[in-house]
Write a structure and sequence with these properties.
Elements (H helix, E strand, L loop, with lengths): L1 H8 L9 E2 L1 H10 L2 H24 L3 E6 L2 E9 L2 E5 L8 H14 L3 E5 L7 H10 L3 E3 L3 H10 L9 E3 L4 H10 L4 E2 L7 E6 L5 H12 L6 E6 L2 H10 L8 E5 L3 H11 L3 E5 L3 H4 L8 E4 L5 H6 L25 E9 L1 H17 L3 H11 L2
Parallel strand pairs: 4-5, 4-7, 5-6, 7-8, 9-10, 9-12, 10-11, 12-13
Antiparallel strand pairs: 1-6, 2-3, 3-14
Helix pairs in contact: 2-5, 3-4, 3-5, 4-5, 6-7, 8-9, 13-14
Length: about 375
């Protein structure tokens, strides 16, 4: 691990120096300018409010399917979750609270954060303090993923790893899956914007460049029914980002929605006159932003839902990070003696049809048949 830190992060840290103590996290919050400290605290509060409400909606459910047969579902959190907070190109305090706050709202006992030391800024440390992170280690990359999955003398292993990262981190997560749970395998960031003639091209261009600045591999696509909006937006995009942007003409909004569904984007912005009317046509998207006053950047930092979202068309079958990411569900089944006796012969017949005679015997021994 120490060799990996020297080679990839350019730092020479002993294992005893990996962990950032809680006192330093709290001190970092005190060093921030008041306005920055205030908006950070407000953002954490918004994210916490949203995810605690999500937790309250997911209660244990009990159902009596027939007389004497009660079934239910019990939801429990993982014991320990690891948060990977990227720090190669930029510092990401927002990713700290967008992962840590849902974990804490879910009831995770031990929340462990790892991040490359290169961009471990006071904002990142302060976000960890405000979000209630239990352990913070200034280690990153493949080695950090391995430490979370398998443990070291310094870092105890976790049950689940969440959070985005670059290609090497994503591959490392892929290889440790099974030894530990994962939220998703993140690809480059992406946005699709659907616009009609009412859209402000400057807004569209700004949102496209905001996405493109994440990484050279990030992609932004504008699909519009209005050729004038497309032309004006293209003209407003800075030359350095044009290679990451696409501009597509759609016959109508229904066609635009279907094109977006095929892309299944991480972020989808509906810059149309009536976005709620178009919403039923959208089947696949990580997060959907309604109207010109709901930019993706507001969701990235402040609105409430976690900004850790499915990429690379995985919104077709997966969802963004939430309280439920950190939960396991256990089925609960309770039969009375009368209910088992009434149904044991029929259940045993099914077991025998599969050739599992010992299954049938475990029913019959209770039934007395």
């Amino acid at each position: 691990m120490a060799a990996a830190l020297r080679r990839f992060d350019g730092v020479n840290l002993r294992p005893t120096e990996w962990r950032i103590r809680p006192g330093e996290l709290k001190a970092a919050l005190g060093r921030l300018a008041p306005e920055r400290r205030a908006i950070l605290a407000e953002s954490v509060k918004n994210v916490r409010r949203f995810h605690e409400a999500e937790r309250r909606r997911a209660m244990t459910v009990w159902t009596e399917t027939r007389r004497g047969v009660t079934v239910g579902q019990r939801v429990t959190p993982v014991d320990a979750a690891g948060l990977y907070v990227p720090g190669g190109r930029f510092a990401y305090p927002s990713t700290v609270f967008m992962t840590a706050v849902p974990a804490k709202a879910a009831g995770v006992r031990r929340v462990v954060m790892v991040t490359p030391p290169r961009h471990l800024t006071d904002e990142v440390k302060a976000a960890a303090w405000l979000s209630g992170v239990d352990e913070v280690y200034q280690i990153g990359g493949v080695a950090a993923v391995a430490a979370l999955a398998f443990g070291t003398k310094t870092v105890k292993p976790v049950d689940l790893i969440v959070g985005p990262g670059g290609a090497w981190v994503t591959e490392a997560k892929r290889q440790v899956f099974g030894a530990v749970g994962l939220d998703a395998l993140a690809g480059p960031s992406e946005v699709v914007l659907i616009a009609d003639g009412s859209a402000n091209p400057a807004f569209a261009a700004a949102d496209m460049m905001a996405q493109a600045e994440h990484d050279p591999q990030a992609r932004a696509t504008l699909i519009s029914t209005d050729a004038g909006v497309l032309a004006a937006a293209r003209k407003a995009v800075a030359k350095e980002f044009l290679g990451q942007c696409r501009f597509l003409k759609a016959r109508d909004l229904k066609t635009a929605a279907e094109a977006s569904n095929r892309a299944a984007p991480e972020h989808l912005s509906l810059l149309v006159k009536n976005p709620k009317a178009l919403l039923p046509s959208i089947r696949h998207a990580g997060a959907i932003f309604l109207g010109p006053w709901s930019p993706v950047a507001a969701g990235d930092y402040w609105a409430g839902p976690s900004h850790v979202l499915p990429t690379a068309r995985s919104a077709r079958f997966s969802s963004g990070l939430s309280v439920q990411t950190f939960w396991k569900r256990s089925s609960i089944i309770e039969l009375t003696e009368a209910a088992l006796n009434k149904n044991a012969d029929g259940i045993a017949a099914l077991a025998e049809a599969e050739g599992l005679v010992r299954h049938a015997a475990s029913l019959k021994v209770r039934h007395g048949s």
